[in-house]
Write a structure and sequence with these properties.
alpha/beta; Rossmann fold; 6-stranded parallel beta sheet; 15 strands
């Protein structure tokens, strides 16, 4: 068994993560692809997709709802049942979220005001398709969009495997675009051939996807600019080293740039976890990827509970897993994370694979101001105002006129005064 030692950092040396989503070179190159697809439409989309390996020459670019249904019929029955069970769990949680959001009507002087909650018209849902097919990301994005009430849902995924096509059918997607990277994001944002221009583009992806989302965000909505995945395990002396190691490896195998972090108050736990990591890596098929991620991850030995919590809040990680005794007593002090996993049995991978909450989450410390993908991502809160007659109206109209004149806007003031009866 090869030994393994995690990089040690003192708590004072831990800095906020900062965005690792994209770099200037990637942004510049993605911008060229986006511009080509925006201006050249489907031929430009196909040219980039073939050049970058999404498609072979002449291979089909899109799959209709009928094609997706046929793909679902063709997968093994057990696979279909698995996809449908997972979609049902995602749907149930999203429906509960949607019920929390309702239209509003409140009295205001002289009338009523309120808001309506309405979905966007068309959503583009991206699912990566690099090393492995990711049907879970198809379900997480497209099912959630449907629950929000989005009438038209388009999925994009490069080199879609049969299970990816089947997942799109389970999610009731209208169309699947068999392309990835910046070219797919551009097609979703601006339209290309049978792919309609979307109102919002969501979903995880590599740095090309993230760079393109940053570029098209001037025109369409996006969920977030996500970078490589992150897991912070917060562990005390009660933690099981084998479970902590398993969770760190599950995150590390995502990508060589994934960030696995351990924060603990128990010094004896660190070598025990390192031994477990080495033991579990020995027969892990993705060991090379996981080792690369572990190499730039780190461990922090905190002097006490307060210091451990401070490190967690400073990092604001995508995933925060609590391997501690009585996690409920730690939770109130933990303020920044994309998703929290409370207790050793609440494995982060259960969140990844559709127990209910969404797995598209903020990275790079952006959990300080952003939540993960949910039905809210696809909804707009639109306000309205209906005013009648009466003394209350006159009072607010005169206030509006006075405020307008304080700001030097005479036409505003006169418009308000025309609502006065005296």
């Amino acid at each position: 068994m090869t030994s393994l030692r995690l990089r040690r950092l003192r708590s004072d040396d831990v800095r906020p993560l900062g965005s690792r989503a994209s770099d200037e070179t990637t942004l510049a190159q993605a911008a060229e692809i986006v511009r080509d697809v925006q201006q050249g439409g489907e031929p430009a989309l196909r040219a980039h997709a073939e050049r970058l390996g999404d498609l072979r020459s002449g291979e089909r670019l899109t799959y209709t709802a009928g094609d997706l249904a046929a793909a679902l019929d063709a997968v093994p029955g057990a696979t279909r049942a698995l996809l449908e069970r997972t979609a049902d769990r995602i749907r149930t949680f999203a429906e509960a979220q949607r019920r929390c959001l309702s239209d509003l009507t409140v009295p205001v002087p002289g009338g009523l005001a309120g808001h309506t909650v309405a979905p966007v018209e068309t959503a583009g849902c991206y699912a990566p398709g690099g090393r492995y097919p990711l049907p879970s990301s198809v379900l997480m994005t497209a099912v959630t969009a449907r629950v929000a009430g989005v009438p038209q849902v388009i999925v994009a995924s490069p080199r879609p495997a049969p299970v990816t096509l089947a997942a799109a059918a389970v999610a009731r997607a209208d169309l699947l675009l068999a392309a990835g990277g910046a070219q797919a994001i551009a097609a979703l944002a601006y339209g290309a051939g049978p792919v309609p221009a979307c109102d919002i583009v969501v979903g995880p992806g590599n740095r090309w996807v993230t760079a393109a989302k940053q570029i098209v965000a001037r025109t369409v909505g996006t969920d977030m600019l996500a970078g490589p995945s992150e897991l912070l395990v917060l562990a005390d002396a009660s933690a099981d080293p084998a479970l902590v190691a398993a969770d760190l490896l599950a995150q590390a195998e995502h990508d060589p740039d994934a960030l696995p972090v351990l924060v603990t108050t128990a010094d004896v736990l660190i070598p025990a976890i390192e031994d477990e990591l080495a033991r579990q890596l020995a027969d892990l098929p993705t060991a090379d990827i996981a080792r690369a991620a572990l190499a730039h991850g780190f461990v922090v030995l905190a002097a006490d509970r307060e210091e451990a919590v401070a490190v967690c809040n400073r990092l604001a990680p995508e995933h925060l897993a609590l391997h501690v005794k009585n996690p409920a007593t730690w939770k109130p002090a933990l303020r920044h994370y994309g998703a929290l996993f409370e207790g050793a049995r609440s494995a982060e991978v259960l969140g990844d694979y559709g127990i209910g909450p969404n797995h598209v989450l903020p990275t790079g410390g952006t959990a300080r101001f952003r939540g993960g993908l949910s039905v809210l991502t696809f909804l707009r809160v639109r306000t309205w105002l209906r005013i009648g007659d009466g003394p209350d109206v006159e009072a607010v109209a005169r206030d509006a006129a006075d405020l307008a004149r304080l700001e030097g806007l005479e036409a505003h003031a006169r418009s308000a005064e025309r609502r006065c009866t005296s």
